[in-house]
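Homework help board

Subject: predicted structure for assignment chain

Our instructor gave us this sequence and asked us to write out the predicted structure in token form, then describe one feature. I got the tokens but I'm not sure how to describe them. Can anyone check?
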Amino acid sequence: MRKRIVIVGAGFGGIAVARQLGRWLEPHEAEIVLVDRFGYHTLRPKLPQALGGRIACAVRVPVAPLLAGLPVRVATYEVTGIDAAARRVEWEGGGIDADVLVLAMGAETRPPQRLLAAGQEALSVWSFDQACGIRRRLQFLLAARGRGRPVDLSVAVVGGGFIGVEVAAEIQNRLHRALGQEAQGLVRLVEAQPRLLPRLSPWAARAAARHLQRLGVEVTTEAAVEQADGTGLRLADGRVVTAGTVIWTIGSLQAPAVLAEAGLTDETGRVPVTAKLAVPGFDGLFALGDCAYVPQLGPEAAEPSAHRAETQARVVARNVVARLRGRAGVSWRPGRNIYLLGLGPNWGLLEAGRLLRMQGRLPAALKEAVMLRHLWGVGGWALLRRGVGPVVVDSVMPARWERDPLPDGAL
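My token output:
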């Protein structure tokens, strides 16, 4: 009997599951449906570069062409409810039942509301709309300054983790292109811990701090934020960081509220799953990517990562096929964490344990190569040809965007 497989979410994990199941299953075996509220796949690792105006903001790809030629149906709806026991997904005016339900809905880092003064809205860079909105804000301020208007171009980036160091580098680079040496010190990176990149080694922290300071970023560590308002930040030790724009890269990683409402998340705000990436207590329900984690594997295996989502997707796809064909499933075994960061044009940082550490141009090139591989993997030559310019080439060449407005759009 033909089964229905429903995948919710078109991120790195959801797209990979849909493509693999579309290749591995015969049409008579299963109907495959991918549900996503936007109908776009966002290249999230490129958002800091888009924010800094170094590449076009067209870092999202329509989902349907990515699945062309595969027996996968795309349904563009915003999911409003999930019945985990019945494996039903609901949206306004309808819904769909599944024999196997795969949740790949991602997660967002939600800034701590307790630190925001009344009426203040937190600016973060976790989504396409957020990152490109900040970019447009910076463009507006630079244009107003060019017309002689008094504007505050200072920026405070809260959080010296992976996203924070990339965002600070990209914004400083953007301001330097526009203002030259006047941009020195306009961007300040604020980290509560004694050093940057607390999940990496002291070597990586020192290398990142040195490079950011060469770019002109002021790095402030051991600086816990007590409150943010319209003038900047007040730190717990009494210091004040003035800033016209405050960008948050810290906060708790939370799965979409609809998963909490379905009773699937725990106190961490994410969905706990088994090593086979199945949700305990719910037959035929799987979860992967940022919205889920395997508790017994520890915090390092739960870090948000596009690469990790893709490796989990292969396990979920194999287990879904095994379920349909009456075979045993497999467990996900995370490999060594490989950290690859890009801090502005032609400079990156690579760390994989103690044996492989690198900084400079080569890690930056490797990061772009990883994106090229992803573009090829999800869309083949057609997507690679469309994306190599606005998403890859522009990120390693001098910016060409100073003369022309940056498009939003999509690849």
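Reply (TA_rk): Your tokens look well-formed. For the description, you could write something like this. The chain has a mean pLDDT of 92. That's the kind of observation they're looking for.
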